[in-house]
Design brief:
Layout (H helix, E strand, L loop, with lengths): L3 E6 L4 H12 L2 E7 L2 H11 L2 E4 L5 H11 L5 E4 L15 H28 L3 E6 L12 H20 L5 E6 L9
Parallel strand pairs: 1-2, 1-4, 2-3, 4-5, 5-6
Length: 182
């Protein structure tokens, strides 16, 4: 195992899988966290990482991830998220909106809160939250996703202020549209 450890949530495809591959190339031991166990197991074998089937919306699932990671973590990449539907506000499917908040805001917070002690213990931890340009500009049919990604941004900015006295950097990356299988 390398001397640096990273957790990547949503590592089963797209930005998460690409991030895991790059981190492994840079010498990190990567803990791949996602719901689709078969995909992260294959990726773990490819990059020499550790697959941990994880649902960021579940306290028990995140607790299992924390146990697998251990007492020290250098980097957390909160990438799990999703946009579910393109409903206009007047026709909003609030179940989908709730699901977007649960993954993009609450799940991100659940994972960060749980792993923060291990990040602090590293002496130089880092958190990268994968937001979206949708968290900066609203678009028609995107209010639910926009609000969730604005929430990602708000959590990032507030956490940065709240732990300014801790040895952990808090960052957000806000990509635009990305071509993935999703």
């Amino acid at each position: 195992m390398s001397s640096k450890n990273a957790v990547v949530t949503g590592a089963s495809s797209g930005i998460g899988a690409a991030t895991a591959r790059q981190l492994a190339k840079e010498g990190y031991h990567v803990f791949l966290a996602a719901r689709r166990a078969d995909r992260i197991e294959a990726l773990a074998e490819e990059i020499g990482g550790t697959a941990i089937a994880t649902d960021v919306t579940s306290d028990d699932s995140v607790a299992a991830l924390v146990e697998a990671v251990g007492d020290r973590l250098d980097l957390l990449v909160n990438n799990a998220g999703g946009a579910f539907g393109v409903d206009k506000v007047a026709e909003a499917d609030l179940t989908k909106w709730q699901a977007m908040f649960e993954v993009n805001v609450i799940g991100l917070t659940r994972v960060t809160k749980a792993l923060l002690p291990a990040l602090v213990a590293s002496g130089a931890g880092a958190v990268i939250n994968v937001g979206s340009i949708a968290g900066r500009r609203a678009y028609e049919g995107g209010a639910g996703y926009n609000a969730a990604k604005f929430g990602t941004r708000a959590v990032t900015e507030a956490l940065r202020l709240e732990i300014v006295d801790k040895p952990v950097r808090i960052m957000e990356i806000a990509p635009g549209m990305v071509q993935t299988e999703e």
